Structure prediction request, 362 residues.
Amino acid sequence: MDIERKIELVKRKPTEEVVTDEDLRHIFETHNHPKHYIGFEISGQVHIGTGLCTALKVRDFLEAGIKPKIFLADYHSYINQKLGGDLEKIREVANGYFKHAFVSLGMFDESKVDFVLASDLYDSDYWKTVLKITKDTTINRMLRCITIMGRKESEATSSASIVYPAMQAADIFMLDVQIAHAGMDQRKVHMLARELSHSYKKEFVAVHGHLLPGLKGSQRMSVPGTSSIQEKSEIDIDAKMSKSKPDSAIFIHDSEDDIKRKIAKAACDPGITERNPIIEYAEYLVLRDKTMKIERPDKFGGDIEIANGAELKSLYLEGKLHPMDLKNAVARELIDALRPSREYFEKNKHYLDQISLKDVTR
Prediction:
């Protein structure tokens, strides 16, 4: 496979940003099989913003010859008080339900993806690196980075919150990866790590995925004095798809009826495409690699086939596509895409039993 095709696969939706394109090209010129990682806190049931978006990108990375690693961040989860701060439960869920949430989607060969519990790799050299990063970074910079925890700067509840970004940067260096992958909400710590990477001789490319809005819809936060790129990572914490708000999210193992019900109630104002959850699910999850059929009676224009996100938005802005027709199509597509996960957890209920909505914290 040529380098152009590999770059195309990395940048394919739901990727939103690569830092930088030139560095990515260099990675493929110098590595036949670059190493990748994406890390996750262990908390609550897995929704499509975590599970489906990640599985789609891992499949892209495998096709591009990249070696993916899914990093199960138990200590990070512990610091951020996930699952009540119960470290043993966090580890049980990490190796059980959480790992199998990705496997259940059936989008990649499990044997080709490395699932790693973070603390299994941590040694004295790792903690030395964490301390060195804190030494090389100001307190104010660390405080600005704690938004990667899904919390505002003012919500740092313990001094461990300040160490958290240094641990995440140290993860990248310890794993010696060429591609660090995360949602746009993790951009701040990736930029910190990239600034330090030259002196640590651990250069890497940051790949940032689009953050799907919750079903209630959202607006981007306005951040005075930031660039347009910086603003991409400043998403209202309360507006994202959230495990702690079950009706704001579609979980990968939701029943067909739950998916239909949640989509039917979702925000989808006529003629509005910006931060419209149904438009975004269609654009980033459905239309990334196929067309989408809109089924409707002849008296309302008959069936149409939408080729891509640009065509979808154009039709919707012009009022040529009714919200309910769009919702029905997206619900149908998500029901089909998530069928393997529903069937997997029907056969492996003991994993689903490890976690429940009452365990969730933000």
